[in-house]
Amino acid sequence: MSRQNNFWNKEYGKSDRTGGANPHLALSVEPSEDLEKFTRYLVREHGKKFLNVTAQALDIGCGNGRNLIYLAETYGMRGVGYDLSEVAIKLAREAGKELPLKFLIQGMEEPIPLPDASVTIALDMMSSHVLKQSEREQLRSEILRVLKPGGWLFFKSFLLDDDSHAKRLLRESPGDEPGMYIHPEIHTAEYVWTEEAVRDFFEPHFTIHKIEKSFKHKHADGSAWKRRTIVAYLEKSN
Question: Given pLDDT bands bounded at 50, 70 and 90, which one contains residue 24?
């Protein structure tokens, strides 16, 4: 078992579907507010074209399944999620057993187990930052393969811009590749994005409809107390 997998198995082992969770990492059982905001955007712009019972969602690094469960319960979507953590997948399967969802134990560096052009909405939410550059590129290729023309990728990850904590991690615990640091708790490498890097990585393959960055969270002395994140609404080019 990898160090990262062992860490997340322990963290999800502390969590349950009734809301109990590790207080530091806050492994919520509620859907992401950013995802809810994205679905409201899609409904406002396109009605239920992308959010309906005929559409399939994919969640890469799905954790306890909370976001796929939200899409299934709210919009009737089918879905497939996968995660490296056996404990997380056990939680997801139990919580989603009455829904048209499938949860698999799998790493993000492996091929996505779905046919070409079979996915309407893909989610990469705080997941692929643990991959090296070549692996992120491979995952992007796989997402493009399984997405339908005009399908969507909802992307969320850590942001370097104006984040003093991320800059300190890069300075004090650098990883093997530019933009990566060694996480002080998990002891594995993580990549932190800039907005420019997000645009350079995705724009040749997707239309970027929206980018949002979280606020700068600081204590009174100016030190950071919460990491910044970046969200992108990405539509696959036809």
Answer: very low
Cβ atoms of residues 82 and 114 within 8 Å: no
Encoded amino acid at 204, one letter: P
The conformation of residue 193, written as its DSSP 8-state character, comes to B
Tell me what the mean pLDDT of segment 208-223 comes to.
73
Q: Work out the burial of residue 18: count CB atoms within 10 Å of its CB; fewer than 13 is exposed, 13-18 middle, 19 or more buried.
A: exposed
Does any domain span residue 205? yes
DSSP letter, residue 103? E
Q: What does the chain come to in residues?
A: 238
State the total domains in the chain: 1
- In this structure, the strands spanning 217-218 and 224-226 are antiparallel
21 within a domain of the structure (yes/no) = yes
φ, ψ of residue 86 to 5 degrees: the values are -65, -35
Range of the domain at 49: 3-159+190-236
By the 8 A CB rule, do 65 and 81 touch? yes
Determine, yes or no, domain membership for 136.
yes
Question: Would residue 167 count as lying in a domain?
Answer: no
Q: 209: domain CATH number?
A: 3.40.50.150
**pTM of the predicted protein model:** 0.88
Query: What whole-number distance in Å separates Cα of residue 54 and Cα of residue 77?
Result: 7
